[in-house]
Amino acid sequence: MELHTDERLSATTSSCPSSQTDGASVSHLLPKDVQQQIARHPCYSKQAHQYARMHLPVAPACNIQCNYCNRKYDCSNESRPGVVSHLVDPHGALKQFRAIKKRAPNLTVVGIAGPGDALANPKATFSALKLIRDEDPSAQLCISTNGLMLADYADALAAHGVNHLTITINTIRPEIAAQIYPWIYYDHQRLRGLEAAERLIRNQLAGLEAAAKLGMLVKVNTVLIPGINDADIAELSAAVKARGALLHNIMPLISAAEHGTYFGVTGQRGPTEAELASAREASGQFMPQMTHCQQCRADAVGTLGGGCGTEADNASKADNSFKVAVATNGEPLIKTHFGHAQQFEIYRLDPQAGEFQFLERRQVAQYCNGESACPDEEADKQAMFKAIEDCRMVLCSRIGIAPWRTLEQMGITPNVDHAFAPIDVALAAIANSQLAATTHSQKESSDEVCHY
């Protein structure tokens, strides 16, 4: 079966109709072997939405400065690339992977996306990749990079089992690149202006070509910046396609001033929906488009459709799914007080499988710091409640009477019955109870005698 990429998704696992909803008039076909490789990677295939990915925040340093980037290492309230709640070393990353994988059999992809650049931190990156590969050879490994050092490390990436690679390339014109990148650090020198731009573009294209020749599936990310690089998207797309890129992901500039980026504080606006669609149409003449990117954090965990692992999705309970939030600070046991939680792991009951599937991890700011008393920080409390408002139940070791009542008013059941039990054991018990109750309810309904 050949793969058409005509719909809003550029890479799916089934044939698509001949109409192009993004406006491009060209249909792209991907070979069957490529389809098989992307079938379980949610960033490459929109049809892989049921699979989870995990970003390991092991790469803090970066070798270029982008005017749209401001890295943060202790941030829990922003959902964008370049931010994490905390950094981990490779062994800490392995520990996180083991904990998530144990409770999330749908975790198929493990990547390194910062918060700096994976290849500006080669020791940590390759150590983490090896540990994950040794732990789970079936995991699909991927990295994101700006491409400056890609040609130097392409062979090593292939040797470590990396088969999916994302390169951010915003232009192939040095005069435009100089407006996006104030400097790069290369060969022990800080380069600026056109010299920096020319070196970066040369290395990016050489690295892309090298990676593609090694068999990696390369996705190119481009940040669309109105008035700067929007007029040259077609030229860029043709150039990366010619060097072996598989997909093009054109993303809107995130330019909120509160993020502290240069473009944000100087008033550079992001693109409109029409401008974004136009850019994708121009690129779509040359290669398939990825249009479901969430522009996730560098520590995102979960399904792509579930967001970036830091904020609750805005879907209401109208989807009738049964979600459970587990208060945790990274441990495998339910031993976190509700008010002390720094994150919630979100699980959704799969009635067909008869078990909970891991969706994502949502970061929150804890509002309790003492043993028992909690200050009246209303903003933090409301943010915590909002983070789990789409759930039916929350598991924790302890919870105060005030938040208990608030959760009940929201239609969420607080549950401390499984305090200090393993999370997977507690979820299995809840799944059995919920499915049994559903079966009983359905049986009673079928046994009813209706009188007309």
Automatic annotation (TrEMBL):
SUPFAM superfamilies: Nitrogenase accessory factor-like (SSF53146), Radical SAM enzymes (SSF102114). Residues 1-25 are annotated as: Disordered. Pathway: Cofactor biosynthesis; Fe-Mo cofactor biosynthesis. Residues 48-297 form the Radical SAM core domain. It comes from the Bacteria. Residues 10-24 have a biased composition (Polar residues). Keywords: 4Fe-4S, Iron, Iron-sulfur, Lyase, Metal-binding, Nitrogen fixation, S-adenosyl-L-methionine. Its cofactor is [4Fe-4S] cluster. Belongs to the radical SAM superfamily. NifB family. Involved in the biosynthesis of the iron-molybdenum cofactor (FeMo-co or M-cluster) found in the dinitrogenase enzyme of the nitrogenase complex in nitrogen-fixing microorganisms. NifB catalyzes the crucial step of radical SAM-dependent carbide insertion that occurs concomitant with the insertion of a 9th sulfur and the rearrangement/coupling of two [4Fe-4S] clusters into a [8Fe-9S-C] cluster, the precursor to the M-cluster. This is FeMo cofactor biosynthesis protein NifB. It comes from Shewanella avicenniae.
